[in-house]
């Protein structure tokens, strides 16, 4: 009803083109006398809520409708007492608390909103009101630890308004407000989700008042809560609803709100999350990653370098890949793009290892009786090579995850594209061994490179050069991984849809490869088999092919009404001149 009344007043303001204050002034006494006439505590809860909500609305009017006088100050003091009181003090009998929980929460919420509306009034900043303002700020602090989100949000908004008016809070008032959370931080058993949420909100408002030591204390508490026996037992069931897991997640939610110098906690924080996931037998995801990603986004460059230095560790690599592929990790992906040379270096190390192992194999083959067996045994037995193979696979997975969100990365950084192609070529030369822990690294590396090339090719509208390279890599990898998705894309999205003008462009780009020797015979054969031949053949078998984008060949029957005419359109200049050469 109150919201409907406010909406009606807004309509009247629009119709009469005068302020709400002007509309209400003639009825001021009739409106306010019943509210100021009785103490709030003498009224039932619903009337208390209605009166307080009405005064809050009036306090927010411009021009001002209410004066800061003795009557209003008395009402504010009553609302302050209500907001500060415990639930048991607001009912006639303690047994009534449970049945009145909703109304008590709503009452506390509207009290805080009215106190906030009063605090923003300039005339309330007089020195004579300083004690009342201090009490109100104390109630805001206290309400941050309330179990109701509605009350916490209102208190948080109140403190925001206070900080907009005064940049610094009095030291004694600040110490009093922070004391409950500091007491909770002193003992890990006192931590609750509500108290940690209150700490997070305080950090958002008062970041400069906290030190990094708060983060170190929370890391210590995480170790206390992360009991290995408890975590291992929890690994066998759903963990999201466990009290201990909720506490750990709430602790992690605080770290991205710490002061800027909290980047020094990066190693300890990530190591703690890795330890938690290992004990919980979680590999691909966990409730701890989302809050961790917020911290990584806060320090993106440091995070990228940190994970790149530890990417040979399987669990660190999985977390990094997950973070890069997550929609909310845009800052982290931005930092990754700026660190392209670092990724190129990691891929180059793998290529160097393959080249060195091959060179050693050739040298040893000259000294043994069975030279054909030496290269394979040397490549298979090189521990350093397989470690770097795993690193290259993880880097390729990271690049693939990033390209899903920034597909033009390879187009803008040719060094990374070349490094990926070199890593793919090196992986083709490395033999897989099923009995090794990294036996999946080789096919995964190859697949990530292919999928990365596909994303990059799609992002730049399938230029012929990129398309030829994609098909070459795909065709030569068909014995190692499933590449059917690429050939399906080429047929379904390109060959049967391209207009003749696009086919002519691709054919003109391909023909010089046959005479210039810029590509091997194997590469040309792959492109011919999977692109050129079907592309040309469909010109004569698909009558719906358009001459150019946006032009339907069927509707242009006077121009192209036979397969011979479509073929002539395909082979006109510059393709015809290239054929004559």
Describe the structure.
- This protein has helices spanning 2-16, 20-24, 28-37, 45-59, 70-84, 101-119, 130-143, 149-165, 171-185, 193-205, 213-225, 228-234, 243-255, 266-279, 289-298, 300-309, 314-325, 330-338, 340-365, 374-381, 383-403, 409-412, 414-429, 441-459, 464-476, 484-495, 500-516, 521-541, 563-570, 575-580.
- The radius of gyration is 35 Å and the shape is elongated.
- The protein is mostly helical.
- The longest helix is centred in the middle third of the chain and has 26 residues, at 340-365.
How many helices?
A: 30
Strand content: under 5%
Backbone structural class? mainly alpha
**Overall pLDDT metric:** 85
Sequence stretches where pLDDT stays below 50 over 5 or more residues: 369-378, 551-561
Give Rg in angstroms.
Answer: 35 Å
SSE succession: HHHHHHHHHHHHHHHHHHHHHHHHHHHHHH
Q: How many strands appear in the DSSP assignment?
A: 0
- Shape type: elongated
Q: What profile does the largest beta sheet have?
A: none
What distance separates the N and C termini? 86 Å
User: What percent of the residues sit in helical stretches (DSSP H or I)?
Assistant: 55-70%
In short:
This protein has helices spanning 2-16, 20-24, 28-37, 45-59, 70-84, 101-119, 130-143, 149-165, 171-185, 193-205, 213-225, 228-234, 243-255, 266-279, 289-298, 300-309, 314-325, 330-338, 340-365, 374-381, 383-403, 409-412, 414-429, 441-459, 464-476, 484-495, 500-516, 521-541, 563-570, 575-580.
